[in-house]
Fold Gfo/Idh/MocA family protein.
Amino acid sequence: MTYFDRRPTSGGPVRVALIGAGGMGRHWLRLLHGDPDTELVGLVDLDRSVAQAAAESIGRSDLRLGTSLTEVVGAIPVDAVVNVTVPEAHLPVNLEALGLGLPVLCEKPIVPTVGDALVLAAAAEVAGRLVMTSQSRRYFRSLNQFRAAVSGLGDIAMVTTDFQTGPHFGGFRDRMQHPLLLDMAIHAFDACRHLLSADPVAVYCEEFNPTWSWYDGDAAAVAVFEMEHGTRFVFTGSWCNEGLPTSWNGQWTARGAGGSATWDGLSAPAVDGAAAEQASQLAMQEDSAAPEEIAGALAGFLSALRTGATPYGDIHSNVWSLAMVQAAVESAERGARIPMGPFMGRAYEEALDSVRDPIVRGRLSSWGTARAGLAAHR
Ligand SMILES: NC(=O)c1ccc[n+]([C@@H]2O[C@H](COP(=O)([O-])OP(=O)(O)OC[C@H]3O[C@@H](n4cnc5c(N)ncnc54)[C@H](O)[C@@H]3O)[C@@H](O)[C@H]2O)c1
């Protein structure tokens, strides 16, 4: 059952305010400016000069600028919000948008903790407005081809992903406590859920910082997830890798009863084994015209607003990708395997303890359990 209203009711282009005009914000700015189904009307950044420079970079000095969403929405009509602020600002900005009656498409990670995500999901239900995460790396044609191929291999025993790059970002990632797991691995964890149509059951993870790392927090990790239906998902990754880099989507292999498939994160998958022909045919049938990366997330968001159909990335489902990250962090800190059932129970208690709004608390409390509340809107 859908919890959100369709927007805009007029059926015209969706009038969007973009919040956050930093590195990623500028990518969104160009996408929204050129998208015929949206009308970019406002741009918000804590630093007004950053917003102004970004608007001028696309020749849009007409955009309504502001240092808060409330300021911009008070001045012009807005139908929806795209939130590209830093992760710590995601929760307050998303709640502000919901308070203004606006649906939100928010960059990953949707909020810092699973407890916060449960509060946000309940707040979205109370407001009757869609909250969706943009997990841009789920929108790759070749990932969907890999997924189709994997669906032709029968039961899947294991999936492995190796992610190795060495970017020097500067900025918030260099100071984060868990830069690889929180800011990057969520893409692979989310893609694995998409690949297998399965949620996590348990995780064991070791997180560490190589001696030459330029990050304050741990920039490398090895994690083993048990997924639903028994598949094991093994993730190895480093954000301070030197030499032999993988693609930004990582290097993937899936091993099933009917054979194996690999994906280099860029091109069509390769398949081998008894079911290879069937798996290859399934991969070839995948839609080749679907928009990719953030354009794919935007198309999913707009389609959901138009049709009322729950999109991939809806907060109620995306919580499970965030839960994979946070449970992996907890496992690394405690040196223990973390089963997701008790983990989600603790997150639900934390959410009930932290939520201030009595109506949102009532909604959250009515779920009974996190799993039941999330499942009601999948
Ligand atoms: N999908 C991807 O591949 C991808 C890639 C890069 C970044 N991201 C995500 O995008 C988000 C932004 O990353 P970035 O690299 O652009 O960061 P950034 O630091 O370059 O930019 C963030 C901007 O948000 C502004 N800001 C912070 N708090 C605000 C608030 N409360 N209200 C208004 N503006 C606020 C800052 O002033 C800054 O200009 C992060 O969540 C990041 O994880 C996603």
The mean pLDDT is 96. The pocket of nicotinamide-adenine-dinucleotide is lined by residues 19-25, 44-47, 50, 84-87, 89, 93, 107-108, 136, 171-172, 183 (CB under 6 Å).
